[in-house]
Amino acid sequence: MAVRDCIIRTNPTHNVLGQLKKQTGAKRGVRNALTPEQQMAFLEFMDGHPVYDHWKPIYTFFIGTGLRVGELSGLTWKDIDVENGVITVDHAAVYFAGKMNKSKKKIYISTPKTDAGIRKIPMVKEVRQALKEIKQYQHDNGIYCATEIDGYTDFVFLNRFGRVFLQQDLDRALERIIDAYNDAELHEAKMKNREPFILPHFTCHSLRHTFCARFCENESNLKVIQSVMGHVDIATTMNIYAEVSEAKKKASMEALAEKMVLFSQ
Predict the structure, then answer these.
(1) Distance in angstroms (rounded) separating the CA atoms of residues 47 and 57
(2) How far is CA 263 from the centre of its chain?
(3) Which of 121, 149, 206, 237 has a C-alpha 20 to 30 A away from that of 73?
(4) For the chain, how many helices (H) and strands (E)?
(5) Other Cβ atoms within 10 Å of 211 Cβ, number
(6) For the chain, which residues make up each domain, given as ranges?
(7) What are the Cα distances from residue 44, in Å, to 20, 48, 175, 179?
(8) 207-228 pLDDT, tens per residue?
(9) CB 110 within 8 A of CB 91
(10) Rg (CA), the chain
(11) Residue 234 — φ and ψ, nearest 5°?
(12) 3-12, 82-91, 155-164 — which is least confidently predicted?
């Protein structure tokens, strides 16, 4: 702000954190994208489950769009263009409570601070199907939006009381589903005398990273990935792409070996 208002010419703290990390050897936290096998096991477990089936469309939507939790919570049906198959992301629902918040209002609508946050995401068929299942589930159970936040209403993702899901709601549900899956898998593996396929504990943000990982595995244009993910800095996209590329390196070399004779026999 001081630079913007011409109080000082330059920002003396610019890139200080980045330099500090290099000097101290600090590394950013490990991202927890699911593998394709983990992703499939997670979704298949919920499919038709008597308790967790209604959660599947929500987490399918996460994996199929890569939205941030607040963006998903704040999504309204007006933001979804079914005819053209596009989702418009231009706001998010933010939960703000605690001692710093003196008002009774706890949920706000936040608009992106940069143009990168405003974007359109094409819908894949799994996302279209998830939206149909969400609408059908709400109709069958008499769930209607009972929430208006800063002029926004008709939200897509609602709990049984017609209120928007918040991050803590979705992360707690994930914990229950993962625990239930692992318990069932341990029992089945013991019955069949095989090694269990255990899911790690992960959060909704891990599902955003999972989407990005699958995207990077199938798209080489970093600007396209950056646009869909809403990354402000291309370096963020490049870091994720590099991680995925590293994981695919062995498979790529094996595929290359099948197509080319590198060594004479």
Answers:
(1) 9
(2) 43
(3) 237
(4) 9, 5
(5) 22
(6) 52-164+206-232
(7) 44, 8, 16, 15
(8) 999 999 899 888 888 899 999 9
(9) yes
(10) 22
(11) -60, -25
(12) 3-12
Whole-angstrom distance, CA of residue 13 vs CA of residue 26:
18
CATH pick for 52-164+206-232 out of 1.10.443.10, 1.20.58.480, 3.20.20.80, 2.40.50.140? 1.10.443.10
Cβ count within 10 A of residue 121: 22
Q: What is the pLDDT of residues 163-203, one digit of tens each?
A: 999 999 999 999 999 999 999 999 999 999 999 999 999 99
Q: Is 135 helix (H, G, I), strand (E, B) or coil?
A: helix
Query: Long-range CB contacts (< 8 A, 24+ apart) of 165-168?
Result: 165/58, 165/72, 165/73, 166/73, 166/93, 166/95, 166/107, 167/69, 167/70, 167/73, 167/95, 167/204, 168/95
For the record, the structure tokens of 164 come out as 């928007």
pLDDT in tens, 13-32: 887 876 776 666 555 555 57
